[in-house]
Amino acid sequence: MKLCRFQTGSGRPRVGLLKDDATILDLSAEGIDRLTSLFEFEGLAAQLGALAGANLPQFALADVKLLAPVEQQEVWAVGVTYLRSKKARMEESDFSASAYDKVYDAPRPELFFKSMPEKVVGPGDAVGIRSDATWNVPEPELAFVINSRGHIVGYTIGNDMSSRDIEGENLLYLPQAKIYDRSCALGPFVTVGATEAEARTWKIEIGIERAGAAVFSGETSVGQIKRTFAELVEYLFRSQKFPHGAVLFTGTGIVPPDGFTLAAQDVVKIGISGIGRLENPVAVV
Ligand code: DO4
Ligand code: MG
After folding, report:
1. N or C, where is the chain less crowded by C-beta within 10 Å?
2. Which residues contact 3 (CB under 8 A, 6 or more apart)?
3. How far is the CA of 179 from the centre of ligand 1 (A)?
4. Separation of CA 212 and ligand 2 centre (Å)
5. In this structure, are 57 and 109 located in the same domain?
6. Does the Cβ of 159 fall within 6 Å of ligand 1?
7. Is the entire prediction scored with pTM above 0.85?
8. Of the candidates 66, 98, 116, which is a domain's last residue?
């Protein structure tokens, strides 16, 4: 079962349920026009199964604009959950190497704030590279969609855009390397009803194109995430409430070679096998 937010023309955002690869069922017809309230339903997957059989208005995917699947959810991220991420960050900075080494093995994960919901970029919209950064990369990540009770209700695709020169200069600059206009992309679909064991079999792929030619590609597996899903959510919800739920990026396992940096007008394509594909052009902000 895959959910999305979508818009037709300049109309209000609606909630959709993917019927097949080309068709969306409009759940607004059932009075469901907010993902946030849907995510609070007990037994969401079963309820969506029932809705899939109802006689609902349909739209061709090709005729709608898909939106980021967030409304009021804060977006957070965990880092250094893949060995590849730890190694890349230790190489990027002598200054911070021991911090990355330690956090990979420490009981407490690295958790950082990533975005206000209204700043999240959706499918097809530009992701940003900072005008004052020289080494910019996308980070293709599985993202948990979590309800107010701390339950993972679904999974979506995230791009944790990052400025590696700023992060590498001094660990205290991490918020500047991670949080700026258009640095967070999510969507388009939220896959509901998959267990952690199923999600761990999913492949994450990225392709970056420049003037139509491939300039980088890479892949990893969700199964490479070092920590359990429950552990990551438990730390996020420690001593903190999320009345509208939250989205949590789970870290990157794909890091382009050190000589690579994104350029304006590149196109970043991220696929996660159980979810779909998130594509965004790149712009300087
Ligand atoms: O501390 C650096 C950020 C780590 C991160 O974003 C990742 O591993 O994905
Ligand atoms: Mg990341």
Report:
1. C
2. 15, 16, 17, 18, 35, 38, 48, 69, 154, 189, 190, 192
3. 12
4. 26
5. no
6. no
7. yes
8. 66
